[in-house]
Amino acid sequence: MKMLLKSFALLSAVLATACVSILPEAAPAKPRFHIAAADGDALAGEPLAFSLVVDDPRATRVYDSVRIAVSAAPGRIEYLPGAEWADRAPRLFQTAMVQTFEDAGRILAVGDRVAIPVADLVLQTDIRRLEVDVEGADAAVVSVYARLSNGKGTVYAARKFDARVSAASTKPDAVYSAFEMAFDQVITEIVAWTFDAGADARANV
Protein backbone atom coordinates (compact mmCIF):
# COMPACT_ATOMS: atom_id res chain seq x y z
CA MET A 1 0.00 0.00 0.00
CA LYS A 2 2.84 2.39 0.87
CA MET A 3 4.55 1.61 -2.41
CA LEU A 4 1.31 2.35 -4.26
CA LEU A 5 0.92 5.71 -2.52
CA LYS A 6 4.54 6.64 -3.26
CA SER A 7 4.11 5.71 -6.92
CA PHE A 8 0.91 7.78 -7.13
CA ALA A 9 2.62 10.79 -5.52
CA LEU A 10 5.58 10.51 -7.89
CA LEU A 11 3.28 10.25 -10.91
CA SER A 12 1.30 13.30 -9.75
CA ALA A 13 4.50 15.34 -9.37
CA VAL A 14 5.68 14.35 -12.85
CA LEU A 15 2.34 15.24 -14.39
CA ALA A 16 2.24 18.58 -12.58
CA THR A 17 5.76 19.41 -13.79
CA ALA A 18 4.82 18.42 -17.32
CA CYS A 19 1.72 20.62 -17.21
CA VAL A 20 3.73 23.64 -16.11
CA SER A 21 6.41 23.10 -18.70
CA ILE A 22 4.04 22.99 -21.67
CA LEU A 23 2.23 26.24 -20.82
CA PRO A 24 3.50 29.23 -22.86
CA GLU A 25 5.11 32.01 -20.87
CA ALA A 26 2.98 35.13 -20.62
CA ALA A 27 4.28 38.03 -22.71
CA PRO A 28 5.31 41.07 -20.66
CA ALA A 29 2.67 43.77 -20.53
CA LYS A 30 3.12 46.75 -22.83
CA PRO A 31 4.05 50.00 -21.08
CA ARG A 32 1.07 52.38 -20.99
CA PHE A 33 1.80 56.08 -21.35
CA HIS A 34 0.00 59.03 -19.79
CA ILE A 35 -0.24 62.67 -20.94
CA ALA A 36 0.76 64.88 -18.03
CA ALA A 37 -0.52 68.37 -17.26
CA ALA A 38 1.84 71.26 -18.01
CA ASP A 39 3.33 73.43 -15.25
CA GLY A 40 0.35 75.39 -13.96
CA ASP A 41 2.48 77.54 -11.65
CA ALA A 42 4.24 79.02 -14.67
CA LEU A 43 0.82 80.11 -16.00
CA ALA A 44 -0.44 81.71 -12.80
CA GLY A 45 -1.68 85.31 -12.80
CA GLU A 46 -4.64 87.54 -12.02
CA PRO A 47 -8.02 85.79 -11.65
CA LEU A 48 -10.21 85.85 -14.76
CA ALA A 49 -13.95 86.48 -14.60
CA PHE A 50 -15.23 83.71 -16.84
CA SER A 51 -16.05 80.02 -16.63
CA LEU A 52 -14.70 77.57 -19.20
CA VAL A 53 -15.74 74.25 -20.66
CA VAL A 54 -12.95 72.22 -22.24
CA ASP A 55 -14.86 70.27 -24.86
CA ASP A 56 -14.01 66.72 -25.90
CA PRO A 57 -11.20 66.99 -28.46
CA ARG A 58 -12.08 65.87 -31.96
CA ALA A 59 -9.83 63.42 -33.80
CA THR A 60 -10.03 60.87 -36.58
CA ARG A 61 -9.91 57.20 -35.72
CA VAL A 62 -6.22 57.24 -36.57
CA TYR A 63 -5.57 59.15 -33.33
CA ASP A 64 -8.73 58.46 -31.32
CA SER A 65 -7.26 55.28 -29.92
CA VAL A 66 -5.00 53.81 -27.26
CA ARG A 67 -2.57 52.90 -30.04
CA ILE A 68 0.34 55.24 -30.74
CA ALA A 69 0.33 56.29 -34.38
CA VAL A 70 3.49 56.15 -36.46
CA SER A 71 3.81 58.05 -39.75
CA ALA A 72 6.09 55.96 -41.94
CA ALA A 73 5.35 57.72 -45.24
CA PRO A 74 2.96 60.39 -46.56
CA GLY A 75 -0.58 59.13 -46.04
CA ARG A 76 0.59 55.92 -44.37
CA ILE A 77 -0.04 55.27 -40.66
CA GLU A 78 1.21 52.32 -38.65
CA TYR A 79 1.22 51.82 -34.89
CA LEU A 80 4.02 51.50 -32.36
CA PRO A 81 4.20 47.82 -31.40
CA GLY A 82 5.85 48.11 -27.98
CA ALA A 83 3.63 50.58 -26.10
CA GLU A 84 0.23 52.26 -25.99
CA TRP A 85 -1.60 55.17 -24.37
CA ALA A 86 -3.20 54.53 -20.98
CA ASP A 87 -6.57 55.68 -22.41
CA ARG A 88 -7.80 57.13 -25.68
CA ALA A 89 -5.27 59.83 -26.58
CA PRO A 90 -7.85 62.66 -26.99
CA ARG A 91 -9.29 61.89 -23.56
CA LEU A 92 -5.84 62.01 -21.97
CA PHE A 93 -5.13 65.29 -23.76
CA GLN A 94 -8.40 66.83 -22.53
CA THR A 95 -7.73 65.76 -18.94
CA ALA A 96 -4.21 67.20 -19.06
CA MET A 97 -5.55 70.55 -20.30
CA VAL A 98 -8.22 70.72 -17.58
CA GLN A 99 -5.65 69.93 -14.91
CA THR A 100 -3.32 72.63 -16.25
CA PHE A 101 -6.11 75.23 -16.12
CA GLU A 102 -6.92 74.14 -12.58
CA ASP A 103 -3.29 74.23 -11.45
CA ALA A 104 -2.84 77.73 -12.88
CA GLY A 105 -5.66 78.84 -10.60
CA ARG A 106 -6.91 81.74 -12.73
CA ILE A 107 -10.36 80.30 -13.52
CA LEU A 108 -12.51 79.09 -10.65
CA ALA A 109 -14.91 77.14 -12.86
CA VAL A 110 -13.23 74.96 -15.49
CA GLY A 111 -13.86 71.40 -16.58
CA ASP A 112 -15.40 69.12 -19.18
CA ARG A 113 -19.11 69.14 -20.02
CA VAL A 114 -19.85 66.60 -17.31
CA ALA A 115 -18.31 68.79 -14.60
CA ILE A 116 -19.59 72.09 -16.05
CA PRO A 117 -22.57 71.67 -18.41
CA VAL A 118 -22.88 75.43 -19.06
CA ALA A 119 -20.09 78.04 -19.08
CA ASP A 120 -19.25 81.48 -20.44
CA LEU A 121 -16.71 80.15 -22.92
CA VAL A 122 -16.00 76.83 -24.64
CA LEU A 123 -12.56 75.63 -25.74
CA GLN A 124 -12.86 73.29 -28.72
CA THR A 125 -9.84 71.43 -30.09
CA ASP A 126 -9.22 69.33 -33.17
CA ILE A 127 -6.25 66.97 -32.98
CA ARG A 128 -4.74 67.06 -36.47
CA ARG A 129 -1.56 65.13 -35.79
CA LEU A 130 -0.48 63.02 -32.83
CA GLU A 131 2.14 60.64 -34.09
CA VAL A 132 5.71 59.51 -34.26
CA ASP A 133 7.13 60.76 -37.55
CA VAL A 134 9.81 58.35 -38.76
CA GLU A 135 10.35 59.93 -42.16
CA GLY A 136 13.92 61.16 -41.83
CA ALA A 137 14.71 62.02 -38.22
CA ASP A 138 12.44 60.36 -35.63
CA ALA A 139 10.21 62.87 -33.85
CA ALA A 140 7.03 63.17 -31.80
CA VAL A 141 4.58 65.46 -33.60
CA VAL A 142 1.55 67.13 -32.02
CA SER A 143 -0.69 69.50 -33.98
CA VAL A 144 -3.90 70.92 -32.50
CA TYR A 145 -6.34 73.48 -33.89
CA ALA A 146 -8.15 75.39 -31.12
CA ARG A 147 -11.26 77.56 -31.15
CA LEU A 148 -12.62 79.68 -28.31
CA SER A 149 -16.37 80.26 -28.60
CA ASN A 150 -19.50 80.94 -26.63
CA GLY A 151 -20.73 77.44 -27.43
CA LYS A 152 -23.59 78.84 -29.50
CA GLY A 153 -21.85 79.47 -32.81
CA THR A 154 -19.88 82.64 -32.09
CA VAL A 155 -16.12 82.08 -32.34
CA TYR A 156 -13.97 84.66 -30.57
CA ALA A 157 -10.53 83.36 -31.51
CA ALA A 158 -8.88 80.45 -33.31
CA ARG A 159 -5.31 79.28 -33.74
CA LYS A 160 -3.22 76.22 -34.61
CA PHE A 161 -0.57 74.95 -32.20
CA ASP A 162 2.30 72.74 -33.33
CA ALA A 163 5.18 70.99 -31.64
CA ARG A 164 7.83 68.69 -33.07
CA VAL A 165 10.36 67.14 -30.70
CA SER A 166 13.15 64.83 -31.85
CA ALA A 167 13.19 61.32 -30.40
CA ALA A 168 16.42 59.47 -29.74
CA SER A 169 14.88 56.34 -31.28
CA THR A 170 11.54 54.63 -31.81
CA LYS A 171 11.89 52.65 -28.59
CA PRO A 172 8.93 53.28 -26.26
CA ASP A 173 10.82 55.23 -23.59
CA ALA A 174 12.47 57.52 -26.16
CA VAL A 175 9.14 58.10 -27.91
CA TYR A 176 7.39 58.93 -24.64
CA SER A 177 10.13 61.34 -23.61
CA ALA A 178 9.68 63.25 -26.88
CA PHE A 179 5.90 63.24 -26.55
CA GLU A 180 6.15 64.61 -23.00
CA MET A 181 8.01 67.67 -24.25
CA ALA A 182 5.73 68.12 -27.25
CA PHE A 183 2.56 67.96 -25.17
CA ASP A 184 4.02 70.26 -22.53
CA GLN A 185 4.71 72.88 -25.20
CA VAL A 186 1.29 72.61 -26.87
CA ILE A 187 -0.73 72.54 -23.65
CA THR A 188 1.19 75.49 -22.18
CA GLU A 189 0.62 77.55 -25.32
CA ILE A 190 -3.08 76.66 -25.56
CA VAL A 191 -3.75 77.52 -21.91
CA ALA A 192 -1.88 80.85 -22.09
CA TRP A 193 -3.67 81.73 -25.35
CA THR A 194 -7.06 80.84 -23.85
CA PHE A 195 -6.44 83.13 -20.88
CA ASP A 196 -5.63 86.07 -23.17
CA ALA A 197 -8.32 85.39 -25.79
CA GLY A 198 -10.91 84.69 -23.12
CA ALA A 199 -10.19 87.94 -21.29
CA ASP A 200 -10.51 89.86 -24.58
CA ALA A 201 -13.74 88.10 -25.48
CA ARG A 202 -15.37 88.87 -22.14
CA ALA A 203 -14.21 92.49 -22.23
CA ASN A 204 -15.97 92.98 -25.57
CA VAL A 205 -19.24 91.32 -24.63
UniProtKB/TrEMBL annotation:
Residues 42-191 form the ABC-type transport auxiliary lipoprotein component domain. Residues 1-18 form the signal peptide. It comes from the Bacteria. Keywords: Lipoprotein, Signal. Pfam families: ABC_trans_aux. PROSITE patterns: PROKAR_LIPOPROTEIN. This is ABC-type transport auxiliary lipoprotein family protein.
